[in-house]
Amino acid sequence: MSNFFSTKIEFLKGVGPMRAELLQKELNIYTYGDLIQHYPFRYLDRTQFYKIAELDETMPYVQVRGRIRGKEVLGEGRKQRLAATLVDENGDQLELVWFKGVKWMEKSLKNHTDYIVFGKPTEFNGRFNMAHPELEELAEEKQTTAFLQPVYHTTEKLKAHRIDSKVISKMIEHLLKVALPQVQESLSPELIDTYRLTDKRSAYANIHFPETVEKYNAAKFRLKFEELFYIQLRLLRHKVVRKADLKGQIFNQVPTVTEFYKNHLTFDLTNAQKRVIKEIYGDLTAGKQMNRLLQGDVGSGKTIVAFITMLIAADNGAQSVLMAPTEILADQHYVGLKAFADSLGINLGKLTGSTKAKDRKVLHEQLRSGDMKMIVGTHALLEDVVQFQNLGLCIVDEQHRFGVEQRSKLWRKNPRVIPHVLVMTATPIPRTLAMTLYGDLDVSVIDEMPAGRKEIVTVHRFDSHRLRVFQFIRDQIKLGRQVYIVYPLIEESEQMENYKDLMDGYESVKRAFPEYKVSMVHGKMKAQDKDYEMQRFVKNETQIMVATTVIEVGVNVPNASVMVIESAERFGLSQLHQLRGRVGRGAEQSYCILMTGYKLSKDSKTRLETMVRTNNGFEIADIDLKLRGPGDLMGTQQSGVLDLLIADLSKDAPILQEARAAAQRILNGDAQLEQPEHANIRRHIQSLSVNTVNWSRIS
């Protein structure tokens, strides 16, 4: 793509310095390239005309032809409005109303003249009307005009400065006149031929101003394919380069692992765990740096896989780190693994923000000398003072909670050779999202639960069933169990007055269960207060834990068998699934009760029905992606990779798979893109900024 597209937007006809500044601040549009890729988010169908008799209130924006027969200004002062009557060829009438710009409209609207009227029909007193419709005088030669009209994202601030969708549309119209001759093809002839893609100039022209529905569909497919192709090409190329260039320590000795299997492991591993360990071992013996994502639902046994991987590192003279996002989770990993490490005579340490200074000194010394082979901890592990003799393995739990810079700080703690990396998540990621977010990682999935683990029974109950739910809670506590009650808010706000808030809930629970002790945990508490309350619950000193979503990740209380989620319609599907995973960790039957009012949106009903129907995290993640889109999941809006312009991962999985297969095929045959048939692709990549995350962008 030529330098033409890096021209500053202020030089475009109809923009200028003031508008350019607003477009930069509000829409991140700096250049011609940014503007041509500011695609419409929907289109108004101007291809069909309705008769007035065919209108009904459920219709979106519609188009009607007719003649103005009379207009008058009604009301006084601020309540003034202009009303006009449009009559179609059948003699049916439609009232047109304007509450703003009355004087100007009254002057410009011509009586006894034919117009095309475009707007939202509403019924009032048995008659249809349209408020503030768009008008176009119907000249004889325009009788056959029909098109899809683009609608562009704008903001309130832009609208206040008279830059609405129509003005942006006009800017793009001016841009296309000068830009289309400058557009160069960015895909290879083979790709265009194989996938029957329209050329790039035609794609730009028809995504903004479609000539026909067929040409619009062809433009949309072409631009989506290209966007996803360049993202996948970048990820896969990064993977190829890394595997070629980054050497890894070879860990092929496993005496302690064998000893652990034979004499210390008190349960059988699932087939899925065995398969994953085999995949990891293959990486560790290949002489290349491992970069693997381990996905597995809550309770599927990722931690024991992590420990066995750490044992392999220890058997080969290397140290390993297991980093968790919270102290609670780090403590849980430490307590769970300490007994195994002790039985094998391995020195396992723990380093968190609350580790005392004198203990830190000992830990730092043992890590530097190599006496400590394994350490579990939080962000405290990233401090410069923490140095290793030979760090060979980094395991990061719930890795999306750490920034890229934080993670790379850990890898740099071995200056001689980059450690092997295993990142783990209990948040099931839909396949399309994993391919895009983690396309440069090898992925392992534990898709099987340990034997004997009972499936959590999930039910949906309305607020009117509360007394029955409370009785069920009492019955469970009498059996010696404990209960979580989760609320979406800390304190009531005006906007969300219908939803149960935590403080109110805490008081209600104490009143409802005077015979039991109640803990409370929320995100605004100090860390030590939170830990104190959590520990009381862990030790069964309190029977009920009232909490916000801070308990979503990390708490392992096998005795807690009931999870009540208040105002469950307020939570996303993946979040509900994560919360449910806090119970069902012991041998007893566990329950999740979703409480709501009767007024539920269609999406809320889908979420609740899905939760009741299935415990499969991957199925849930796929439905969640369809409902919410990728931006909210996994904190991906900060990742840069998902800064998609036109593709939609929740809808475009088939295109993504084709684009990835195409990128893989090209790299397999020509990793450096040196062959003549890949000249377009090579030129497109070279034209991009070195730091651009999204290779599908122009600049």
Record the SSE blueprint.
Elements (H helix, E strand, L loop, with lengths): L15 H12 L4 H5 L5 E5 L15 E13 L6 E7 L5 E6 L3 H7 L5 E6 L1 E4 L2 E5 L2 E4 L9 E5 L4 H5 L4 H15 L9 H6 L5 H9 L4 H33 L9 H9 L7 H14 L6 E6 L5 H14 L3 E5 L3 H17 L4 E4 L5 H13 L4 E4 L13 E7 L6 H8 L8 E6 L5 H7 L4 E5 L10 E6 L3 H13 L3 E5 L15 H11 L5 E4 L5 H12 L5 E4 L12 E6 L7 H8 L10 E6 L5 H12 L3 H12 L24 H17 L9 H9 L12
Parallel strand pairs: 4-7, 10-15, 10-16, 11-13, 11-14, 12-13, 14-15, 17-22, 18-20, 18-21, 19-20, 21-22
Antiparallel strand pairs: 1-9, 2-3, 2-5, 3-4, 5-8, 6-7
3D structure, described in words:
This protein has five domains: 1-41 and 148-182, DNA polymerase, domain 1, CATH 1.10.150; 48-144, OB fold (Dihydrolipoamide Acetyltransferase, E2P), CATH 2.40.50; 183-245 and 651-698, no CATH class; 255-446, P-loop containing nucleotide triphosphate hydrolases (Rossmann fold, 3-Layer(aba) Sandwich), CATH 3.40.50.300; 456-614, P-loop containing nucleotide triphosphate hydrolases (Rossmann fold), CATH 3.40.50.300. It contains 23 helices and 22 strands. Strand 2 (62-74) and strand 3 (81-87) form a beta hairpin. Mean pLDDT is 85; it is low at 141-146, 631-641 and 690-699. Pfam families: DEAD, Helicase_C, RecG_dom3_C, RecG_wedge. It catalyses: ATP + H2O = ADP + phosphate + H(+); Couples ATP hydrolysis with the unwinding of duplex DNA by translocating in the 3'-5' direction. Residues 283-446 form the Helicase ATP-binding domain.
